[in-house]
Design brief:
9 strands, two-stranded antiparallel ribbon, alpha+beta
């Protein structure tokens, strides 16, 4: 009995550590450790109470679903940041891995010429340490990041570990049908097997372990492909924004060059009008010349050159299309995010706002309102615009495009939000669509 509790106090923290490589916690390290320690204490206390009342160790294994699975599930479900299919896949997978490790540990100990209760514990602990090392080396942040992009595929992924658990339960329920119970190998949580079944049993465990590993690899490959696609999308919008701004700068530079070249002629014309005392015509000529100078003016909205370039471009378009453009920028020149990334996001958000305004009738009020505010280390990017029609949102609260090959820009925004651990919120009320992105300086 003492060996069982020592085994529990060693293996349970290892299992929680393995689980920590597959899910993301919503709380800090201190609270997580307190909750996990409380769950382990509950498990050990319930096992102790069960043993004191029955005095049989196998009863503890029989009620493991109550004393171990339920406390660990509730504690991890409370700590998990995302309680979706990825959590259930990780939990079911760990249950299967824990069972496989226990079975193999007892089988390996049986095959040794020496008999000791220490060997199953050693094999069990070493294999768990090995799994923890592999998970931390090859899963960890990569798997947690990949989990956010699997969507409904988690229902398919959960099928295998869930089927394995059902098979364990069915196998456990078939013990009473066996006759020869003298020559057997006791397995925790699964009763026993006969020595002649060891090769087949090991093959089955290896197949299950290989299949679970294959699923983890497939998740990583799919995520890598999605990540490359998102990076290409981001580069597309970055190059597009810079290309549009470059064309705008070239147009203004060309206009300014022509205006400078013709300045001597303008001064001569103005001098002639004043000489002939045609003051009204001279005033109109100066007004027209001032208008041309304004068209070549490079406006400055903030100290960040990329953001300033994007805003200048869409401000000019809005002015040309008679769309009211309200701008409020209160940020420093240096941002905690890459200038090209935030430039692409801002360009995409303003382009979506501009397209929505262009779909409205000309006789209605069309506007775009941009706010980019910094409060200490917190940043809020808020883009609002008028729109016409209905906006459809998916289950996660994100707008769904009804046009084919449309919405790539939104994917770029989602990639930015995930990359910088930001929050995003959409709303559409009373003819006003709003996009708000909040991020912070982590340094």
């Amino acid at each position: 009995m003492l060996r069982y509790f020592v085994d529990s106090l060693v293996t349970l923290p290892l299992l929680y550590a393995i689980m920590a490589t597959m899910i993301e916690f919503r709380f800090g390290k201190r609270r997580c450790l307190i909750v996990i320690a409380l769950a382990i204490c509950i498990t050990v206390s319930m096992d102790s109470w069960k043993y004191l009342h029955s005095g049989v160790l196998t009863d503890i294994y029989a009620f493991a679903w109550l004393t171990t699975c339920i406390p660990s599930f509730l504690s991890l479900f409370y700590l998990a940041k995302y309680r979706d299919g990825s959590f259930f896949f990780a939990f079911f997978t760990e249950c299967v891995l824990a069972s496989i490790v226990s079975f193999l540990a007892y089988i390996f100990a049986y095959l040794l010429p020496w008999r000791s209760e220490v060997f199953p514990f050693l094999f069990h602990t070493l294999m768990l340490f090995g799994i923890l090392f592999v998970c931390r080396r090859f899963l960890g942040r990569n798997f947690i990041e990949a989990a956010r992009y699997q969507g409904k595929r988690w229902l398919l992924y959960c099928a295998l570990p869930f089927m394995c658990i059902v098979i364990w339960i069915m196998y456990t329920g078939s013990f009473s049908h066996s006759i020869d119970i003298a020559n057997k190998i006791d397995l925790p949580y699964a009763g026993y097997i006969y020595p002649q079944d060891i090769p087949l049993f090991i093959v089955l465990l290896v197949i299950i372990f290989y299949t679970v590993s294959l699923i983890l690899i497939m998740i990583t490959i799919i995520h890598r492909a999605d990540k490359e696609r998102r990076e290409k999308t981001t580069l597309y919008f970055q190059s597009k924004a810079l290309r549009e701004r470059l064309f705008s700068l070239e147009d203004k530079e060309e206009s300014l060059r022509i205006l400078r070249h013709d300045m001597r002629h303008h001064l001569s014309t103005l001098s002639g009008l004043l000489h002939n005392k045609e003051l009204l015509q001279a005033q109109e000529y100066v007004s027209q010349l001032d208008h041309n100078l304004v068209q070549t003016k490079q406006e400055s909205f903030c100290a960040n050159p990329v953001i300033n370039a994007v805003i200048s471009y869409y401000a000019a378009i809005a002015q040309r299309e008679r769309i009211q453009f309200l701008i409020r920028i209160q940020i420093s020149g240096n941002l905690p995010v890459d200038d090209m990334n935030i430039g692409a996001i801002l360009s995409n958000a303003l382009e979506n706002a501009y397209n929505a305004c262009m779909k409205q009738p000309v006789d209605v009020k069309r506007f775009i309102e941009l706010k980019f505010i910094q409060h200490k280390k917190q940043f809020v990017l808020d883009v609002s615009n008028s729109f016409y029609g209905d906006v459809v949102f998916d289950l996660s609260g994100r707008p769904v495009s009804q046009r084919k090959d449309h919405g790539i820009g939104s994917q770029s925004i989602f990639a930015f939000v995930h990359k910088y651990n930001s929050t995003i919120d959409y709303s559409a009320k009373n003819g006003v669509f709003n996009l708000r992105i909040m991020f912070a300086d982590s340094e």
